[in-house]
Amino acid sequence: MNDGVQPDNRHQPVVGLALGSGSARGWAHIGVIQALEEMGVRPQVVAGTSIGALVGGAYVSGTLDDFADWVKRLTVKDVFGLMDISFSGGVVKGEKLFGYFEQHHHNPDIETLEQKLVTVATDMRSGREVWISKGPMLDAARASCALPGLFSPVKMQGRWMLDGGLVNPVPVSAARAMGADVVIAVNLNAQLVGAHLSRDTRSQADQEHGSEEEHSIWQKMMNYFAPGDDENPGFFDVVAASVNIMQDRITRSRMAGDPPEVTLVPLLEDFALMDFHRASEAIEEGRQLVERYATDIRAWVGSPLADRV
């Protein structure tokens, strides 16, 4: 018997966001998330690799806007000042950088959050893909960010973890496994990075360093990141180019086998690997990208989630 109440048969998909690896270009993730929220699209599942894990963690813990304000203010001096240089296992140990995050941003246990979060890391011993969906958010992000040649590996659950981009640069599969019906993926690996320190970055750093200690640190970093030439490529040229090529090929392969419903590719080809001080540009590109794909996003997501409450 029908009592006059019409059942609502509309399918409300679980929206997942897959935030890929890509070093400084990853600040574009912030703009993507902010623009999605303004559309009324709030992903229930967030999967992040490397820089995507860090931005995704800030988002689900409710501190993304504060985090965005901070990264927009970063100068070259600030970026290098947050790096605890150690040429054992990687240039940067990460303790200073992530210690700063822990002091200034919320660091909840992932399982207590309203949205689901999973970060992707690589077991250094076995080469296996590791999904982290429990424990402190920053620990999960740090394990995913150990880019070979740049960040030192981190020990977690008795295992040394490397960057998740080595096995799953754009974690669409992780988002689906966490229950996402519709996945919006942000792929930062479609444009290979040629430079690691842009010319403007080097010039700005030369102007900003003041003390003898700061000058010494800068020179160490310059020596490490300095490009070689056609005859003799520099050490970091070889490491970074190898990682870039590998991640691009893995991304193509994995996304062909498990394509997301919407793929967003920020146009940031002039971004060098270490251009973390250019956050405003990357964030704005992320925002514009969502605007350009707004019709596709709405077609897959349906009515904005804000209107369903």
Keywords for this structure?
alpha/beta, eight-stranded mixed β-sheet, 12% strand, PNPLA domain-containing protein, NTE, lipid degradation
Descriptive notes:
Residues 5-9 and 305-309 have low confidence and may be disordered. The protein has twelve helices and eight strands. It has a single domain (15-196, 220-302), classed as Cytosolic phospholipase A2 catalytic domain, CATH 3.40.1090.10. It has helices at 28-39, 51-60, 64-72, 76-81, 95-104, 137-144, 172-177, 199-208, 212-225, 235-257, 279-292, 294-301, and strands at residues 15-19, 45-49, 116-123, 129-132, 154-156, 159-163, 182-186, 262-264. It has 309 residues and is α/β, with parallel strands linked by helices. Strands 1, 2, 3, 4, 5, 6, 7 and 8 form an eight-stranded mixed beta sheet that branches. Helix 1 (28-39) crosses helix 11 and helix 2 (51-60) runs antiparallel to helix 6 (137-144). The chain is 42% helix and 12% strand.
